[in-house]
Amino acid sequence: MRTAVSLKALPAIIVLAVLAYLPYVPIEVPGLLPGRVNGPGSLQLLATCLVIAGIALSYDVIFGRTGLLSFGHALFVAAGSYLLTISLSNWALPLPVAILVSLGVTTLLALVVGGIAFVVVTLLVRSRAGHAMAAVRENEARAAVLGFDTYRVKLLAIVVGAVLGGLGGIVHALVLGGSNPHVTTTEFTLALLIMVVLGGAGSMWGALLGGFLYHYADARLVELSGAGFLDALPDVVQQVLSEPLFILGLFFIIIVYFAPAGLTGLGGRLIRRGRAT
Question: What is the per-residue pLDDT across 203-224, written as a single tens digit (0 to 9) for each?
Fold first, then answer.
């Protein structure tokens, strides 16, 4: 039993060890990173990718685990980020106190929003339309028959995901040295949804992988779209490469079409196929 647990924890240990060693790697990886690996630009990019991966994991708690489609997750991320910035700049609180204040208010906000969602869902499900929805959602009905309080499970998912999102917003502000207005937009929430689906909804490694790769590709494509070497390419190619969102959207469509379970699901399928042969 202990051996099985150790083997499951091995990938996480390896990843953490590699990340801890990166600041001591002076080599350059042309095209992949902006400069040497331990340079400030590369470390900033990797750190931001990791933070976004963590925020994507917080969204996966809501969407990937319980199937709730939230379009307001950016609210909790922004709350954590801006509360930290305000606590440090306007209220002049020490960093540990500012973090506690930000987490406390974000948790309260999550409970209020989650509580409102709980009431709305309860009223909806008890209505005639709600009964029709329950009939469609077979899995939820089965869970209710087994004795699970599905409403409380959903409320718990919203609160846990929101608190983790707020924590991600705090770390995001610390890494960037301030708050970014982009984390307040619905576009950011939709990007989180794409990250989770891209990596594999309901999978911890899927959300992390999807969040990391999406933000990395977005940042690098934006940088490459302004590079001078595009001038030598045909106009059609220039137009395509100068639109990072178009490339990301096309990549997303390909992944969803050929790997509905995401990148982790595709990887697992390839591993099983290799073992079978």
Answer: 878 888 999 999 998 888 877 7
Domain range annotation of the chain: 47-276
- Give the span between the Cα atoms of 124 and 137, in whole angstroms: 14
Question: In angstroms, how far is the first alpha carbon of the chain from the final one?
Answer: 28
Global pTM reads 0.82
Residue for token pair 């073992």: 275
> What's the one-letter identity of residue 255?
I
Instruction: Tell me the HSE value of 241 on the side-chain side, using a 13 A CA sphere.
Output: 17
Q: Which of 94, 58, 91 is nearest to 76 (CA)?
A: 58
What b/e sequence results for 250-263 when a residue is b if at least 16 CB atoms lie within 10 Å of its CB, and e otherwise? eebeebeeebebbb
The span from the CA of 50 to the CA of 212, in Å, is: 6
CB atoms within 10 A of CB 240: 14
